[in-house]
Amino acid sequence: PDTLLSFKPSNTRFGYNSRKLDGKGKLAPVGTTVNMETAEYSNTIGSPQLIAIFKDPEFNPLQSAVYYLRALEIPTPRWTLYDKVRFGVEMDDKVPLVQQGRAFSSPIWYSPR
């Protein structure tokens, strides 16, 4: 993975509904190895294992809470970049040529009971 982001959905009277991103849980971007001319990349950046400690500054031991993590993978070529290189076509500047995969953890639940 490249980056870990932590999320805490807000607990309202009607349940969990609005997510808040914890910017302090974000690690610096790793960069990219994607070659825009050849659509090749190497898996020489990022980390095969990523460990982090998260402390919720708004934690209330009397209130239920749920947390989850999102891991961002290193950037890789998107199919549009492969097509651009293979067929020699020009892509509009708005067309994304690189993607960054994401994985989500299972929820981590806290209950005061």
From TrEMBL:
Q: Which InterPro entries match?
A: DUF3604
One Pfam family per UniProt: DUF3604
On the tree of life, the source organism's domain of life is Bacteria
For this entry, the protein name equals DUF3604 domain-containing protein
